[in-house]
Every structure is written in C-alpha cells, then in structure tokens.
From TrEMBL:
Protein's recorded name: Na+/H+ antiporter
Keyword flag Transmembrane helix: yes
Family membership: Belongs to the monovalent cation:proton antiporter 1 (CPA1) transporter (TC 2.A.36) family.
Keywords for this protein: Antiport, Cell membrane, Ion transport, Membrane, Sodium, Sodium transport, Transmembrane, Transmembrane helix, Transport
Species name: Moraxella macacae 0408225
Entry keyword Ion transport: yes
Domain named Cation/H+ exchanger transmembrane: residues: 25-417
Membrane topology designation: Multi-pass membrane protein
Length: 501
C-alpha cells in the first residue's frame, strides 16, 4: 500500500490550520501572524493535558509520543528556507515599488545590514550577563549565533501586522523593505558564526568578500530571471500560464542562486522587483490583479501552514520555569538590543537622521516582528555536535521570543504608532487606555503628526495641532484662546525633506 506519512502529515496540518485560522478569525480577531501560532500553541497544551488526564483510560488514549515523533520528522528548515519562502518573498516583491526603494534604499540598507549586526552583538552581551548570573554559562559565540538567528525580521509577520495598522507610507516601506532584504545578511552572518563555532578561521575581510559575492551574484541571477520572465510574459497567455510563469520566477531564481552559493532570498526579491515594476507595460491591469489575487491566496495558505507548524514545535520543547523565564528575558534583551542597534547605526549617518520624523526609529525598532525564519535557522543547527549541550536553550529561547514578538510587538504596534501619530480613536479607558498612556512616554518631544491627503490623493504628513486651550484666571473674565505650539526647538513646523526619514 505504500507509506502514507506525507499524506497523514498533510491532513493533520490542514485540519489544524483550519481550526486555528477559524478560531482566530471568529474569536480572537488578531492578525493571522499573531493569532494562529497562539491558538496552535494552546491546542498543543490542551492535547498534552488531555493525554495526561486520560492516561490509563480503557476507552480513549492519546499517544503523545507518536505525535512528538511525527513533529520531529518535519524538517522545518527545508519547508521554509529551502521551500516556500521563495514564493512568499516573490509575492511581496511583485507589489513593492522600485520608486519607494530608490527613496529609502539608504535607510533600508542600514536596517538590513549594520543595525542587524549590532543587534546580534548587543544581544549576545546582554544574554551572556544573564546566563553568567544564573549560573548556566553559554559561550559568547553561541549567543552571537542566537542573536544572528533572531535578527531576521519576518516578512510574513511584518505584512500581517502592517495590514492591521494605519501607518504612514514611509514607515511601511522601511519595515517591509527591511524584512525583504535582511534575510540575506542574517543567513550569511548566521552561517559565518556557525563556521567559527565549528572551528573554521574567521576574518572580517573574508566575511565581507563572501557577503559581497552572495549579494552581487544573487542580484545578477535575479536580474537575468526578471528580464527573461518579462519577455515570456509579453506573449499570448492563458491565466494559468501567467501564474506558472511567476511561480517559475520565484522557484527558478531561488534554486539557481542556491546552486551558485549566492543569496537565494536576494535573487528572488530582485527578480520580483523587476517583473512587478515592468509588467504594467505589457499586461492589462485586470490580469495583474488576478495574478496578485492568486498569490495573496497562496500566501494565506502558506502562512496558515507555517504558523500552525510554529505552534506544533511546542511538542519538541521540554519547557521549565527557568527556560520560560530565560526566554522572556531573551525577548526583552533582543528588543533592547534592536533599539540600541538602530539608534547607533543611524547615529553614524547624521545626515539621514537630521530631519527625521519624531518617533521613526522607535516605531521601526518596535515593529521588527520575528517569525518562522529565526526558528528554522535555529532548528537546523540544534543537532550540531558543538551546539548540542545548548540546544534546549537555543530552541526554547527562540520559540518563546518568536511567540512573544508577535503578541507584544505585533499587537502593541498600533499603540506605539498612536504615541507619535494622532489617532482620535486611541483607547483611553481600561487596560488598553492604561497601556496607551504608558507607551505615550516613548514620545519625549511631546508633539504628534497627523496623516492626510492633498487634492491629488497623495499622503501628506503634518504637525498635529491640538484644540486651543482656554486661559481664564478670573471666573468673571473672558477666556483667551491660546493655540498649542506646533514648532520644535529648531523652528521647523514641517520636515524640510519628507523623504529623508
């Protein structure tokens, strides 16, 4: 009859994905990137609790060990890094405008490279101090590896969060652009540190040469595939062949880059950018809309599978109180390190920061949601002999950080946005109101912006002007309307260069 393992896993994951997505949509109402892993993790807890409760029952038994073995046999790294991520990145790149990249390439480049490296260094230093105090010392190299793996902002999680937030265009471009391009640097840095841990020699020049080769060769591969696909799309097509052509763009460029030992994520992103910004000249808007609609649906299916699998990884974790506490602290250290990494990186480029919007770096630092890429990288090295003594910490900390990143950063991003961009519907009562007041302290300058549109429908960001105060010292005197100051210490009411930051 053959081996039905793959079909069994597919049926199980499909069933769980339906349950988690429906429960999240109808009950929780969270973005999919946040709600589905939470529901999936809760289902795992319920299943484990039920198995222990029914232990010894004559009628119903749940063999939790068989489920754990099945989960362990799922190669999360191959599923994501060597599988579906090419479709996710290409689908995002097809809709990303090159004009936006031209305006913000410096900021995106800094966030995706220098800031990521500094974040890994700061994180390793903070966590080394904690592990030393707790008596469970982990070598600094292993913590650097963990910091590099956690440095990748997840494009799936970012899109899920941004879809539920009314954010200014410039912030959405930077967050999404960073998530598209920092995977290459993250994987290169991760593999470099892993090589050092295994005993390879390390040199900064060698790492830069390797990174340069990966980026340049990947860019060439992506450009070649993009040009080829544009020419193929120019002919007569059925809708099915148009979709298959874009699928070839994603998988073909990614596979060739892997064989060339180049950055596969960069290759498919470059190819997607070229096609997405030229196919309006050769295909009708209805056809492009249909293709994008297809890829949007595929993204949803892949995301449901991926986030369900993230929750199922709880089966292979041996959680303890100390591990949970360490994971929570790792989450705090990671985001402190991200704040420091971003601020130090842009401090080195004062011209970029000179006319920045109030709160841009704070929002960008908060909005770096982690996801499946971090978990896939750590799971792929958990059985490396040099890392086996620390594998429980690596996998446990990563799982908790990914879960908390979605819950805390993803759900808290609207509140952080409200601290700098005026929202008349911001919460004022209950826990949500209290949390909003706490987050408002991030805004040290005290003024906010308001997002509007000009007569052509273009986004306009201006300084928010609150209602005037009424000063009336004498109860019998007539009140005097005094407008709130809308000019900062430098005398600027609006930014000189809105494209800067």
């Amino acid at each position: 009859m053959g081996n039905f393992f793959l079909l069994q896993v597919l049926v199980a994951v499909c069933s769980l994905s339906v349950i988690t997505t429906m429960f999240n949509k109808r009950i929780l109402g969270f973005p999919q990137a946040i709600g589905v892993p939470i529901v999936s993790a809760v289902l795992v807890f319920i299943l484990q609790w039920s198995a222990s409760l029914l232990n010894g029952s004559e009628f119903i038994t749940i063999n939790i060990h068989h489920i754990e073995e099945a989960v362990k046999r799922i190669d999360f790294y191959d599923f994501l890094i060597n599988g579906v991520i090419c479709f996710i990145l290409t689908a995002s790149a097809l809709k990303f405008q090159v004009s936006d990249l031209k305006n913000y390439w410096r900021q995106i480049g800094i966030l995706a490279s220098l800031a990521l490296g500094l974040c890994a260094v700061f994180f390793a230093g903070l966590m080394f101090g904690f592990q030393w105090l707790s008596g469970h010392i982990i070598p600094i190299g292993v913590l650097l590896l963990l910091g590099a793996g956690l440095g990748a902002t997840d494009p799936i999680g970012i899109k899920g969060v941004l879809s539920s937030v009314k954010a200014p265009h410039h912030l959405m471009i930077k967050l999404e652009g960073e998530s598209l391009f920092n995977d290459a640097v993250c994987i290169a840095l991760f593999m470099t540190i892993l090589g050092v841990i295994k005993g390879s020699e390390f040199s900064v020049l060698g790492m830069l040469k390797t990174l340069g080769y990966e980026v340049l060769v990947a860019g060439m591969i992506g450009w070649l595939f993009g040009q080829l696909v544009i020419r193929v799309l120019a002919g007569k097509h059925e809708m099915e062949s148009l979709i298959l052509t874009t699928a070839f763009l994603a998988s073909g460029s990614y596979l060739v880059a892997l064989y060339a030992h180049a950055s596969a994520p960069i290759a498919c992103v470059v190819g997607g950018l070229i096609v997405g910004n030229k196919w309006h000249d050769i295909r009708s808007e209805d056809e492009i809309h249909e293709i994008n609609h297809f890829w949007h649906a595929i993204e949803g299916v892949i995301n449901a599978f991926l986030f369900t699998l993230i929750g199922l990884e709880l089966f292979i974790l041996d959680l303890s109180v100390s591990l949970i506490f360490g994971g929570i602290l790792a989450f705090v250290c990671l985001h402190i390190a991200r704040f420091f990494g971003n601020f130090v990186s842009f401090a080195l480029f004062p011209q970029l920061k000179k006319y920045s919007y109030n709160g841009s770096l704070t929002i960008l630092s908060w909005g770096g949601v982690r996801g499946g890429i971090s978990l896939a990288l750590i799971l792929s090295v958990a059985n490396v002999p040099q890392l086996q003594p620390y594998s429980a910490y690596l996998v446990g900390y990563t799982f908790i950080v990914v879960l908390l990143s979605g819950v805390v950063c993803g759900l808290g991003l609207p509140n952080v946005m409200n601290a700098f961009y005026h929202n008349p519907n911001a919460p004022t009562t209950g826990f949500a109101g209290w949390y909003q007041r706490v987050v408002n302290h991030f805004n040290r300058k005290g003024f906010k912006y308001v997002i509007g549109e000009d007569e052509y429908g273009n986004e306009v960001i201006s300084r928010y002007q609150p209602a005037p105060k009424i000063i009336q010292d004498d109860p019998c005197a007539v009140g005097i309307a005094v407008p709130q100051p809308s000019v900062d210490a430098d005398g600027h009411d609006e930014l000189k260069d809105p494209k800067s930051f």
